[in-house]
Amino acid sequence: MRIDIVTIFPEFFSVLDVSLLGKARTSGLLDLGVHDLRDFTHDRHRTVDDTPYGGGAGMVMKPEPWGEAFDDILGALSSGESAEQATVIFPSPAGERFTQAMARELAEEPHLVFGCGRYEGIDQRVIDYTATRARVREISLGDYVLNGGEVAVMAMIEAIGRLVPGVVGNPASLTEESHEDGLLEYPSYTKPAQWRGLTVPPVLTSGNHGAIAAWRHEQQLERTRRVRPDLLN
Ligand code: 6GU
Fold first, then answer.
1. Which pLDDT tens digit goes with each residue over 96-112?
2. Ligand 1 atom index nearest CA of 139
3. Burial letters 58-80, b for 16+ CB under 10 A, else e
4. Model confidence, pTM
5. Distance 85 CA to ligand 1 centre (A)
6. 122: exposed, middle or buried (C-beta count within 10 Å: 0-12, 13-18, 19+)?
7. Which of 44, 88, 99, 188 is deepest in the core (most CB within 10 A)?
């Protein structure tokens, strides 16, 4: 999978060098390009924002640098790929809600491009124009506001990247996670069996695999009812 990120904070994404995603990059499973939006400006101050038409608080990101950045990324596609095969994602608290199902869907895509907005947002024409060249989605992490899209994109890339075949060594560990079956995960335990006066639930050391599976499912239901009843309808 090819991933391009456009941002005014490219150094933010250096953490993608480490851990599982870092390994996936080294092995070629993930091909990541981070682009500095300011490299597509032409003025001395490398300006990326301006005051909003119609007035109001804050600044809006100017369309021209975004246009040039996407021309560069979508115009220089590898042989065989056309711009329509790219999915451009704009992280935004005004977008559709990011879910595990969406992560699974996006993990199938050959090319994702993330446009990280800052300030009060990006000039709407950037989104409208890009939608004439590629599939565009505006996606939100949840109902709260971040200063910019960078942290949200990091979360999305981690959720999507781990679902790309080969990135996670043991595929079984992907299906036994919270949200994969619509329920929260059951609690986990390891050795020692006794720790600070707390014991491991006896069923887990019983060797009875049917009883263990039943107990884990009951724990999933109980936890989900208690903290996320909205998942149960
Ligand atoms: Cl994707 N971006 C920003 N700026 N804030 C958010 C968000 C995204 N998701 C939740 N809050």
1. 999 999 999 999 999 99
2. 1
3. eebbbbebbbbbbeebbeeeeee
4. 0.92
5. 25
6. buried
7. 88
